[in-house]
Design brief:
By secondary structure, the protein is mostly helical. It folds into two domains: about 5-175 and about 295-325, HUPs (Rossmann fold, 3-Layer(aba) Sandwich), CATH 3.40.50; about 200-290, Orthogonal Bundle (Tyrosyl-Transfer RNA Synthetase), CATH 1.10.240. About 55% of the residues lie in helices and about 5% in strands. The protein has 13 helices and five strands. The protein has helices at about 15-30, 40-45, 50-70, 85-95, 100-105, 105-115, 120-135, 150-165, 210-220, 235-250, 255-260, 265-290, 295-325, and strands at about 5-10, 35-40, 75-80, 140-145, 175. The strands form two sheets. Strands 1-2-3 form a three-stranded parallel sheet. Strands 4-5 form a two-stranded parallel sheet. Strand 1, helix 1 (about 15-30) and strand 2 (about 35-40) form a beta-alpha-beta unit. Helix 4 (about 85-95) crosses helix 7 (about 120-135) and helix 7 (about 120-135) packs across helix 8. It is globular, with a radius of gyration of 21 Å.
Length: about 325
């Protein structure tokens, strides 16, 4: 039974791009009977300054979102990254086997470090190695990621193969698993850039907790393109993005949505999209709020997941320590 892993940074803002890019695929994979690992990557989050109180709140919120989306702790190991010390132990060992050149080629670091000069943290530079440790620790076969994270899985593959060559077969070499549709939901205000939690304007994204009126305003103000027909065309990225979102929230193919709006204009289309998004998010929002009422249960679920993850991680680390020669 293949092992699948994914993680999201704890934040008070999770949007529909996060949902369709990472959370929903894990729910689907869970139904397929894989051995799934879903974790809250709190150590990745601190590559930029965090308010400790808010970070704790955000971790519980992330757990509530996962559960509300359909993650079943009986079938998916749900845990907090920092509760399993082996993640950082393996990251250090992999640090010592990674090359500066390959780290400097990481495009996400270049994007996030732009304009920050020498104030960029070392953690931001090496966090792809921690991500590789997250994956390799559990002999993960496939990692559901967005297109922008594919390079990080490729680094994990390179490090696994390098380690295996040096010390013998130790790690499973993972494959990136990119969904055919919805892997990259673009910003409502800029359809050429991915929807982002850190966007300068809230008009960029639809939060999982946005109220109905906010959703309507954001959709109605979303960037579209020249033309009058409602038809998917990559040369019209604004409309293509909105059609993709419509398709995702209604679980219909794009052609079916196009047919509904044949002969109609952008206003009708956007109003329909707004109502579809509202209908999609309403039950999820209700469940999130229900889970948030019981912090004790959320912590219990995360504690149980951490124990399971720790057992497996320690088994792997015993092998790794033996291979590199630090076991006496």
């Amino acid at each position: 039974m293949p092992r699948i892993l994914t993680g999201l940074q704890p934040t008070g803002l999770l949007h529909i791009g996060n949902y369709f890019g990472a959370i929903e695929p894990m729910v689907s994979l869970q139904a397929e009977g894989n051995e799934n690992f879903l974790f809250i990557v709190d150590y990745h989050a601190i590559t930029v300054p965090q308010d400790p109180k808010k970070l704790r709140e955000h971790m519980l919120f992330a757990a509530a979102v996962y559960l509300a989306a359909g993650i079943d702790p009986a079938r998916t190991t749900l845990f907090q990254q920092s509760r399993v010390p082996a993640h950082t132990e393996l990251a250090w060992i992999l640090d010592c086997h990674a090359y500066m050149g390959e780290m400097e080629r990481m495009t996400q670091f270049k994007d996030k470090a732009k304009g920050k000069g020498e104030s960029v943290s070392v953690g931001l530079f090496v966090y792809p190695i921690l991500m590789a440790a997250d994956i390799l620790l559990y002999d993960i076969a496939a990692v559901p990621v967005g297109v922008d994270q594919k390079q990080h899985v490729e680094l994990a593959r390179d490090l696994a193969e390098r380690f295996n060559r040096l010390y013998g077969q130790t790690f499973t070499v993972p494959e990136p698993k990119i969904r055919a549709r919805g892997a990259r939901v673009m910003g409502l205000d800029d359809p050429l850039k991915k929807m982002s939690k850190s966007a300068s304007s809230p008009k960029n994204y639809i939060s999982l907790l946005d109220d109905e009126e906010t959703i309507r305003k954001k959709i109605m103000s979303a960037v579209t393109d020249a033309g009058t027909t409602i038809a998917y065309d990559e040369a019209r990225p604004g409309l293509a993005n909105l059609l993709t979102i419509f398709s995702l929230v209604t679980q219909r193919d794009v052609a079916s949505v196009e047919a509904d709006y044949a002969g109609k204009g952008y206003a009708d289309f956007k109003r329909g999209l707004a109502e579809a998004v509202i209908a999609f998010l309403r039950p999820i929002q209700t469940k999130i709020r229900e889970y948030q009422k019981d912090e004790i249960e959320l912590k219990r679920i995360l504690d149980t997941g951490a124990l399971r993850a720790s057992e497996l991680a320690e088994q792997k680390m015993k092998v790794v320590r033996e291979r590199i020669g630090v076991t006496l």
